[in-house]
Amino acid sequence: MIGHDAAWSAWHDALAGERMHHAWLLAGKSGLGKMHFALAAARTLVGAGPDVENHPDIHVLTHLPKDDKEERKRDEGKPFEVKRNITIGQVRAMQQRLSTRPTMGERRAIIVDPADDMERNASNALLKSLEEPPVGTFFLLVSHRPAKLLPTIRSRCRTLRFHALQDGEIAELLVQHAPDANEATRAAAVTAAAGSPGRALAFVDLGLGPVAQILHLIAEQGDPEFTLRGELVSAIGTRPDRARLDAVLELARSILDEGLADLDHRLLPARIAAHAELVRLSGEMPTYNYDTGLLVMEIGTLLAGAAQSSGGAHG
């Protein structure tokens, strides 16, 4: 919940006003705590205490378990895989609830997290509710990439922007919340976070310190013998989950972003091209069934190519 002062000020001012806007877009990169803000804001909206976990007038639309097996894992409190999208069925089920009055008061909150991952039909269905919201119903759409949303959805929302933190703030947070991590791991986590406290803590939890060291070596000196790329595959593991791969891709992008201001402008095109390829891989990974080993090798190859453009050994 660090860095939310401006968002809270805008939210409380709106609550105190005569006519509160019915739809809010919480925009910013992932890991900034937007969902935590949405839940806390929803509690203030419906008059629930901070310790209330399952309020009948706070409804959350998010990724469901991928199948019955994963649903059982969820019910048992175990980690589980989720579907790629928020479906139109989920939106329609929510809309059926809107035909009744709120359970405990005059207001209810609908949270969509992340709204970017709604199916096209789900987005169109939600748009109808945003155009004609029931009295007392308020929407909070969590978005990591607002440009993916329908323009008509964005136009009906008041936007709250959540900004990245400074490196010093991330470092201080890690000292407080990850005291067992060594200095090198915390430094790598700050780089990987790119201003996102959630990503920094996830980096430490996932034990990506050794991976970060290898990625930095590849980016600095290339990998002409493919040795470092082999080490990278071993360090990441043969069957990493999506969260681990997402973190590795984010770290690789952050490494390419380092030192851009001081880089010879003639070397920028190759660095930018490698970064764009990493962004493409990040976007395709949830949809395409990539072979993990080949994906990791491709990440290393893109960094090695950037190293070549900077005068390092080629890959």
Q: Could you explain how this protein is built, in words?
A:
The chain is of the alpha/beta class and 315 residues long. The protein folds into 2 domains: 5-161, Rossmann fold (3-Layer(aba) Sandwich); 206-309. The chain is built from 14 helices and 5 strands. The protein has helices spanning 5-16, 34-46, 68-75, 88-97, 120-131, 151-155, 167-177, 183-193, 197-205, 209-221, 227-236, 242-257, 268-284, 292-309, and strands at 23-27, 58-61, 108-112, 137-143, 158-161. It has a 5-stranded parallel sheet, sandwiched between helices. The two termini are 42 Å apart. This is DNA polymerase III subunit delta. InterPro entries: DNA_Rep/Repair_Clamp_Loader (IPR050238), P-loop_NTPase (IPR027417). It comes from Qipengyuania benthica. It holds the Pfam family DNA_pol3_delta2.
